[in-house]
Amino acid sequence: MKIIFNGEEKSITGMTVFEYLQTLDMDPRPLAIELNREILPKNNYKTTMLREGDQLEVVWFVGGG
Amino acid sequence: MVEKKDKLIIAGREFTSRLMVGTGKYESFKQMVTAIEKSGAEIVTVAVRRVNISDRSKESLLDHIDLQKYTLLPNTAGCYTADDAIRTCRLAREAGLSDFVKLEVLGDDKTLFPNNEELLKAAQTLVREGFTVLPYTSDDPIVCRKLQDIGCAAVMPLGAPIGSGLGIRNPYNIRIILETVTVPVIVDAGVGTASDAAIAMELGCDGVLMNTAIAGAKDPVAMAEAMNMAVRAGRLAYLAGRIPKKLYATASSPLEGVIE
């Protein structure tokens, strides 16, 4: 199935948000995630299944003024 | 000593330092950490951006900032609408687990001046959602009053355009803002060198926020220390009360007993 990750289309198999982050080798701790424009609380990463057409925004802090 | 008891209070939280610094534009995390240390700042701004999955070697900024020591102030830099700024703040709260946000909604990318209409709209929603909102705004006393009325925890008028280093271009507006609002007034943007920061503080501002003036200096660590001293010197001079300006001289030495 296809999802949109940070504006780019990705093909993935069915999995949770947490599992998807693992495939990307990303530590979930410093991240914040929006799923279809709604905040996805950290506690829900392991229980939230990604679905066809889902839009993920995955952000963290970078240097800024 | 007058300075020791003098605290900056934002939304009930007490800070000793009146200098707030950014984390952008440094050569390395190491340089950033040393500069922040030397600045004496307790509040540091950060930006919220998409993670880059093609560059997995990239370290997290938070690996380098001691959250026991510093209060994060996530910004909404790069947002041009209230909606984008609100989304960014919600993400920032999720990532940083704090309600403090530096709200900026920009009008165009050439001046980076605020779009005050969108700013007020965003501030309204964010205050309702429980955020502690510190808005970057024009040096406009009316807009500042509206931001205070909405419930913002401080107002942060610009001294000059972001990154311009032009200093405090309209000290009279800043003075009117100081007389108009009761929330802390923090000059955000425009500082180029230490005297600019001192001028802001001598006017009676509650704090100064800067990034480029330090990170863009030839020696950012030395400039961070200079800004630390300038903000403290300016504040102390403000509290001490300057002499009135006069056109003609007044002798400092006794007029009597001059040899003839």
Strand order of the largest sheet of chain B: 5-4-3-10-9
Q: Provide the CATH superfamily of chain A.
A: Beta-grasp domain
Rounded radius of gyration of chain A (Å): 12 Å
Which range best describes the helical content of chain B: under 10%, 10-25%, 25-40%, 40-55%, 55-70% or over 70%? Answer: 25-40%
Q: What's the count of strands of chain A?
A: 5
Which two chains form the greatest contact, residue counts included? Answer: A-B, 25 and 38 residues
Hey, roughly how much beta strand do the residues of chain B contain?
A: 15-25%
Order of helices and strands of chain B: EEEHEEHEHEHEHEHEHH
Helix content of chain A: 10-25%
Q: Kindly give the count of domains of chain A.
A: 1
Q: What is the mean predicted local confidence, pLDDT of chain B?
A: 95
Assigned CATH architecture of chain A: Roll
Largest sheet: number of strands, sense, barrel closure of chain A:
5 strands, mixed
Overall body shape of chain B: globular
| Order of strands across the main sheet of chain A | 2-1-5-3-4
Order of helices and strands of chain A: EEHEEE
